[in-house]
Design a protein that fits this description.
11 strands, elongated
């Protein structure tokens, strides 16, 4: 099977509507491509929301602080060293009030040591102020809930239940968010759970993505509308290579418009 080009998956993750319908259809019905799209979508969402990501981040190099210091015109702290008085020239010594000779510390050095804590404090204030400004003025708006559904357990899964919401992100992206409360089943890793959208008479189904754990958020392709596929279904799927719905639905519910 030929899988989707990475550029196509990236465009879908970014919510780009200019994607060929055949590519969209393949992603919707290919579990492997859909899983990769889900991963890219999580990365995109984390970047937009300044939220946590599920991959390791690289520690910044020491040069980062050096560049910050240069921008704020900070001076490095002076390091005092002991002085052998026998080697100090007379021009660098002076008599103290007690008649003892003492080392003369250049005034510039003392002033630098006094300035250093103040500059660090000023830099800290600037950083805090910047963070507050980002939080207040750049904080992303909350998504708008357009439809929601209560998911009820099917007869074989009568103790299961869940919830689904169709949300519109500030950038126009439509996201289906689902939560599932269902007993764990004994498994050797040969099955998984998948989220579907179905039409009203349940004759057509579209795979939305694989459910990892009890909740998930899935970006909807631009040409999929809740009005055309109002039923949300979560199924138990065998790992047999067949992309079709297994027929073993755990929960199901119909989306209803809000507001």
């Amino acid at each position: 099977m030929t899988h989707s080009d990475p550029d196509v998956l990236a465009m879908l993750a970014l919510g780009d509507p200019d994607v060929d319908e055949a590519d969209v259809e393949h992603v919707l019905n290919c579990a492997e491509c859909r899983s990769e799209l889900d991963r890219l979508t999580r990365v995109t969402r984390a970047a937009r929301e300044n939220g946590p990501v599920d991959f390791p981040l690289q520690d910044p190099s020491p040069q980062v602080w050096e560049r910050i210091s240069a921008q704020l015109t900070l001076e490095p702290p002076l390091i005092e060293t002991s002085v052998d008085r026998s080697t100090v020239p007379a021009s660098t010594s002076s008599a103290t009030p007690g008649g003892r000779s003492g080392d003369v510390v250049p005034r510039r050095g003392r002033r630098g040591r006094r300035r250093w804590p103040a500059l660090v404090a000023s830099a800290a204030v600037l950083v805090v102020a910047a963070l507050v400004a980002v939080f207040v003025f750049v904080r992303p708006a909350a998504p708008q809930v357009e439809a929601q559904a209560t998911l009820a357990g099917l007869p074989a899964w009568s103790t299961s239940n869940g919830k689904a919401t169709m949300e519109r992100e500030p950038d126009g992206t439509t996201v289906l968010a689902v939560k599932l409360d269902s007993p764990a089943v004994d498994s050797d890793g040969s099955d998984f759970r998948e989220v579907w959208l179905m039409n009203s008479d349940l004759t057509k189904s579209i795979s939305v993505g694989l459910l990892d754990g009890g909740s998930g958020r899935f970006v909807m392709p631009p040409n999929i509308a809740a009005a055309d596929y109002p039923v949300v279904d979560i199924s138990q799927q065998p790992l047999n290579g067949d992309p079709a719905h297994s027929g073993d639905s755990i929960v199901r519910g119909r989306l209803s418009a809000t507001g």
